[in-house]
Automatic annotation (TrEMBL):
Keywords associated with the record: DNA-binding, Transcription, Transcription regulation
Protein name, as recorded: Transcriptional regulator, arac family
Keyword Cell cycle found: no
GO molecular function: DNA-binding transcription factor activity; sequence-specific DNA binding
Cleavable signal peptide: none
Organism: Limosilactobacillus oris DSM 4864
Keyword flag DNA-binding: yes
SMART domains: HTH_ARAC
Length: 331
C-alpha cells in the first residue's frame, strides 16, 4: 500500500488574535526607542491594564510571556496584553533595537485562538458598515509594510500634543492599528494575488535601483507590465510605479529620522538619480522638505540598557479612567 492510498489531512495551525474596537477611542500612554550597545536582557515587567507593541528593528529579542518563550527578529511585532508577566530569557546581541509603545483601548480587547480560515469571515466583514469597526491582529507577526509602520511609529513618538486634552497621538495610534490590520488582513479571493505581489515586492527590494523600471520588474517576474500594474493596484491600492516611488520616499523618511545622513546622501541611498528630483518628489508626497521632515520628527524618548522607563500615567488619561472600566485598576 502506497502513501497515495491514504487520505492525509493536515490541520491548519491556530493563531492567537487580539481584537480592538476602533469605534471607541484608543489612548496613547507612553513609548520610545530602545537600542543597546552591549548584550542586554529584558527585565521582568507586569502590564497593568495597558497594551504594549514591541516592534523589532535590529537584532533579536528573547522573551517569556506568561511562560511562553518567544523570539522577535527584525520586522517582527509583538502585542503584549495586560495583566501578564513578561521577562527576558536570554541576552540580546549588541545593536539590538526596537520601538515600544503602550496604549489603552476604551473597550477591553478580546483574545481568541483560531485558525486563519475560521477568522477570515470576521476579518472580511471589518469596515463594511459603521457597526463593524473591530479589527483583529495576531499577537505576534512579521510586519510586511515595515517601512510605513516604522515611519508612523516614529511620528507618534515624535509628536507633541498641542494641549493636554487634545492629543493627536491617540488618533495616530488608532491609525497605526489600522495600518497593521491592513498589512495582515487577507481574503480567500485575494490570497493568490497577494502571494504573487509579495514575491515581486521581495524581488524589487533585492534589485532596487534608481534605474529600475516597471517593464524590467515585469519581465524578470514573468508578468505582462499592464497585468502586473493591475494586480498591484488590486492588492496594494497603488500602481507598480507608485509603489516604486513610495518605497523610495519611505526609505528616505526612515533615513531622515533614524540617521544624521546629509540630504544628498539620503537621496542617493533612497534610489534617486539626483538630489533635485528627490527634493521635488519628497515635498510633493509629504508636504515637507526633507529638512523640515527631519526636524519635525527629531525628538522621541530614547532609553538604554541602564534606563528602564517608568513614566507615570498622564493626568488626562487618569481623568478618563472612569470611561475605561473594562481595564480595571491602571495604577
Amino acid at each position: 500500500m502506497t502513501l497515495s492510498d491514504y487520505e492525509i489531512i493536515k490541520e491548519e495551525a491556530t493563531v492567537k488574535y487580539v481584537s480592538f474596537n476602533l469605534g471607541k477611542s484608543i489612548f496613547y500612554y507612553k513609548g520610545g526607542e530602545f537600542r543597546t550597545d552591549q548584550p542586554w536582557q529584558h527585565q521582568a515587567v507586569y502590564h497593568h491594564g495597558d497594551y504594549e507593541l514591541i516592534f523589532c528593528l535590529q537584532g533579536q529579542i528573547f522573551l517569556t510571556l506568561n511562560q511562553q518563550q518567544l523570539v522577535l527578529k527584525p520586522h517582527d511585532l509583538l502585542i503584549v496584553p495586560p495583566y501578564c508577566k513578561m521577562v527576558g530569557n536570554a541576552k540580546s546581541p549588541v545593536g539590538t533595537a526596537f520601538y515600544w509603545l503602550h496604549f489603552l483601548p476604551q473597550e477591553r480587547a478580546q483574545i481568541t485562538e483560531q485558525t486563519p480560515a475560521s477568522i477570515a469571515p470576521m476579518i472580511n466583514a471589518v469596515g463594511q458598515s459603521k457597526h463593524q469597526q473591530t479589527i483583529f491582529l495576531p499577537l505576534k507577526f512579521a510586519v510586511a509594510n515595515f517601512e510605513e509602520v516604522t515611519v508612523l511609529i516614529h511620528q507618534i513618538l515624535a509628536s507633541t500634543p498641542p494641549r493636554p486634552y487634545l492629543d493627536d497621538r491617540n488618533l495616530l495610534t488608532a491609525a497605526l492599528l489600522i495600518k497593521l490590520f491592513a498589512g495582515t488582513a487577507t481574503t480567500e479571493s485575494t490570497r493568490a494575488d497577494q502571494r504573487r505581489v509579495a514575491t515581486v515586492q521581495e524581488w524589487i527590494r533585492a534589485h532596487m535601483s534608481s534605474q529600475l523600471t516597471v517593464e524590467e520588474i515585469a519581465d524578470h517576474n514573468n508578468f505582462n507590465p499592464d497585468y502586473l500594474t493591475r494586480m498591484f493596484k488590486r492588492v496594494l491600492g497603488v500602481t507598480t510605479r507608485q509603489y516604486l516611488n513610495r518605497i523610495k520616499i519611505e526609505t528616505a523618511s526612515s533615513l531622515l529620522i533614524r540617521t544624521g545622513m546629509p540630504i544628498k546622501e539620503v537621496a542617493a541611498n533612497s534610489f534617486f538619480s539626483d538630489t533635485r528630483t528627490f527634493l521635488r518628489r519628497f515635498k510633493a508626497m509629504t508636504g515637507l522638505t526633507p529638512t523640515e521632515y527631519r526636524q519635525s520628527n527629531r525628538e522621541i524618548h530614547h532609553n538604554n540598557p541602564h534606563i528602564d522607563p517608568q513614566i507615570p500615567l498622564p493626568k488626562q488619561i487618569e481623568d478618563l479612567i472612569d470611561y475605561i472600566p473594562e481595564n480595571g485598576n491602571l495604577k
